[in-house]
Write a structure and sequence with these properties.
heterodimer, A: mainly alpha, Arc Repressor Mutant, subunit A, two-stranded antiparallel ribbon, B: 7-stranded mixed beta sheet, 39% strand, elongated
């Protein structure tokens, strides 16, 4: 990955168009509320514009954005440790299907480290090795998180929604 | 556990169109503002003044308003935070190009005629009354004659407003008003400070 000076501002539109929803989803799952997720996406894109990294492939670009968004979310989570706030209102409005809204609420009730690994694996379809690079952990740590995340999600869902 | 349903549920988490537009606007404003600022710090903008034709054009514009210095940049919202970093309000930055002013004056008062370039745009479409948050009046030599804060608020109708500033004991001569912030208000909302720089010359006879 190389760095050039800064990106032209008209690139903002295309980057939001291509990666906006993916970043928002990732940040929302980590932070649990819409407003914070919006801030995190915004900060991520601003960093992308300022640092102007260049990538070999679009896959590298996507991974860089996820890593930066994750770091941004973690900074925000650290700053609000004393006042955790998960808003489920937005989730409840997303689907009229009770199974889907139940599964989302169960997912959001898991610790953040399991949520992120689960959505990177299932939704973004990353391999364990790629997730390990993004979250800077070993592949075996990712496998453990996936295993434990799946177990916790099932337990939570059975307990609360069945 | 049906993971296909989990995937389908998570994929429904999408940003709204309004949010997308807001993010694009804020990111573009922030990055172009910083680029401009960096260029100014490095003294690149000084090159303009090496060309007399360009310098003359800039100076003649400055007689009406200096908003043109940041031409092409649009405003953006910025949180106001207190010393522990908690957000306590919002202000709107870099609005120089979004508001035009003209000034008329007599010995009793100055009237600042404000025209919002795009009254349907956020934040102007929500604003009902408009005033000046901070301004100064200088004489021809640049000496500050009046330094004022928050004027009375006047109706903003169709993107236009006339703000009156009473004058005391100002003799005849050439003056300049420099406005660094407006304030807009709407019912049940906190007043919004709108920052930028607007200058206009006027004379009292």
């Amino acid at each position: 990955m190389n760095h050039s000076s800064t990106r032209p501002t008209d690139e903002v539109q295309s980057i939001v168009q291509i990666y906006g929803n993916m970043l928002f989803r990732t940040c929302y799952v980590m932070l649990g509320n819409e407003a914070d997720a919006e801030d995190a996406v915004q900060e991520t894109i601003i960093k992308y514009m300022q640092k102007a990294p260049t990538f070999e492939t679009s896959g590298h670009e996507k991974a860089w954005l996820i890593t930066t968004a994750r770091n941004q979310c973690r900074d925000m989570l650290r700053s609000r440790l004393r006042h955790p706030q998960i808003s489920l209102e937005y989730l409840q409005g997303l689907s009229s299907d009770t199974y889907e809204s139940g599964i989302l609420e169960a997912l959001m009730s898991l610790p953040e480290k399991f949520r992120l690994v689960l959505i990177l694996y299932y939704v973004e379809e990353y391999r364990v090795e790629d997730i390990a690079r993004i979250i800077r952990r070993t592949p075996s740590a990712v496998k453990m998180r996936l295993q434990k995340g799946r177990r916790l999600l099932e337990e939570k869902y059975r307990k609360e929604y069945l | 556990m049906d993971y296909e349903r989990l995937i389908s549920a998570v994929k429904k988490i999408e940003m709204s169109e309004e949010m997308r537009v807001r993010i694009i606007r804020n990111c573009e404003s922030k990055t172009s503002y910083e680029t401009e600022e960096r260029a100014m710090k490095k003294g690149r903008t000084g090159k303009w003044f090496k060309n007399p034709a360009v310098a003359a054009a800039v100076l003649s514009l400055c007689l009406c308003f200096t908003g043109a210095a940041a031409a092409g940049d649009s405003g953006f919202f910025k949180d106001i935070t207190n010393w522990i970093g908690a957000v306590v309000g919002t202000k709107y930055e870099q609005a120089s190009d979004e508001i035009r002013i003209t000034v008329s004056a007599d010995e009793k008062a100055i009237t600042v005629h404000v025209v919002i370039v795009d009254p349907a745009a956020v934040p102007y479409r929500e604003i009902e009354t408009f005033g000046i948050e901070s301004y100064k009046i200088t004489d021809r030599s640049g000496r500050v004659i009046v330094k004022g804060e928050r004027t009375e608020l006047f109706d903003l109708i169709g993107g236009e407003s006339e703000i009156t500033i009473p004058l005391d004991n100002m003799g005849s001569g050439e003056y300049k008003i420099v406005i660094t912030a407006f304030v807009g208000a709407a019912k049940a909302d906190q007043p919004l400070q709108i920052n930028g720089t607007w200058e206009c010359d006027f004379s009292l006879s």
